[in-house]
Amino acid sequence: MTSKEWENRVAYLGPTGTFTYLATQELFPNEWLIPYKTIPECIEAVASNQVDLAVVPVENALEGSVPLTIDYLYHEADLYVVGEVLSPIAQHLMVNPKFADHWEGIEGIYSHPHALAQCHKYLYYRFRGIQLNPTTSTAAAAQYIAENPDQCIAAIGNSSAAETYGLKIVQDNIHDFHFNHTRFFVLSRTNQRIERDHRDEQIKTTVMITLPNDRSGALHQVLSVFAWRQINLSKIESRPLKTGLGDYFFIVDVLEDENAPMMRGAMDELSALGCSVKSLGTYYTYQNSHD
Amino acid sequence: MTSKEWENRVAYLGPTGTFTYLATQELFPNEWLIPYKTIPECIEAVASNQVDLAVVPVENALEGSVPLTIDYLYHEADLYVVGEVLSPIAQHLMVNPKFADHWEGIEGIYSHPHALAQCHKYLYYRFRGIQLNPTTSTAAAAQYIAENPDQCIAAIGNSSAAETYGLKIVQDNIHDFHFNHTRFFVLSRTNQRIERDHRDEQIKTTVMITLPNDRSGALHQVLSVFAWRQINLSKIESRPLKTGLGDYFFIVDVLEDENAPMMRGAMDELSALGCSVKSLGTYYTYQNSHD
């Protein structure tokens, strides 16, 4: 099949076998998926029209927000969020098949720093003293293990990484917290939400708000604008404006359509209060079942 | 001088030559400074009475909060903040002295990922294509360069790292943003603020607040408690509770003494609203001049 037969080109944080790959594959089973090495490269790929959409992680239930994604969307890119994917995160310990019976003697463990952190207790009780080696992704760790078949070493990652790189899972679900999820944004140049049958009912709008100059109580005023209208927020977070310690912008997730009358009123009032306000668009949530 | 002659043992995020070392040294010129490898180890050292105080980074003007510090203080430790230090961050490129005249041909650059990010534009325009290697600290990068004198490689770090490891600074102030600061917490088991002559006038209290179960508008109510009393907040930030996506606690910096009558009233009302509230203590700010 040539590239022209695909409807969309979708960038994702690669390589094949990452958690972002799993999220992307389930939402876009029939599109052309293209791996990029870093979050900024994914975002730039869609901003510069190399691809139509990009899928990047934005928040994890344990680690919190992915600052690189939020900061890049605020400071560098002019894109819309057209969908979000929630994926359960399950981490497994995997080795080259020839060490499948000797995995308890592994001499080093490789994974993304977040994955190592997510398995902290397991690693502490089971492999204390064994060297932990950070890699750029869980899939890169699996690839490294596959490329060094003579070393008795292990990777931590998902089942797709094991499959992609021909490794054997010797301990599954070794993550410490069993409700762990990651949230991914689907980004586009056009403000046109993705509408598939398996979407959640609840709609969400993400707004970036910069307060007027350090006026005392300004954030309280901003929240009042939403509160008296009974518009619910599912998240509010501050990030540095990069102009000095103590200067922040806020990223707010609002459970309302940006085109609803109450929401338009709220946005107008925020501007009238002296805030700089930017909506990243209204979108649906898709629950991912893979791990 | 033996250890018994020191008044306090102070843990800091080491090794010698880190930015935390500089901050610690200026506030505690006459104490026994003990380097620890990680933020949790620093915090555990004071919690378990191995040391009297610990100095750890909590926020950077560009990167935002240090999640490990905030999460560890919320979930794992029961300590007080007894002071904060603000330090300017200046990054320099340094090599082994024998390469001082050939530094433009360096084949690899080593530093902490945050330092590499802080010099992103410089590195992009000056050393595009050269391999960037992450290390656990800027000082560890300098140490690596010193230990590999035959390789034409460079570290990025502060002037103390260059001095400690015998390196030559060949390009100074290569960081992209020139107002960059890092904020450090001084932690103690006892709620007794550090009072030195060169403190700032403004007092600050850090409070951790968990909202009642997902009640709509709860954060707005929390801010109202401070707003009607004209108590100013210098920062509010959400962090995951680690119980699932969408569950957060808030860390709030309040410009008031925790023992002031208005502040006691505010804390009592927050509890009455169903919030779980924990004050980390009231403390002074110390401006650090070193880079």
From TrEMBL, chains A, B:
Molecular function GO labels: prephenate dehydratase activity
Top enzyme class: lyase
PANTHER family registered for this protein in UniProt: PREPHENATE DEHYDRATASE P PROTEIN, PREPHENATE DEHYDRATASE-RELATED
Gene Ontology annotations for the cellular component aspect, listed alphabetically: cytoplasm
Protein name from the UniProt record: Prephenate dehydratase
Site (Essential for prephenate dehydratase activity): residue numbering on this chain: T182
Keywords from the named record: Amino-acid biosynthesis, Aromatic amino acid biosynthesis, Lyase, Phenylalanine biosynthesis
Reaction(s) this enzyme catalyzes, per UniProt: prephenate + H(+) = 3-phenylpyruvate + CO2 + H2O
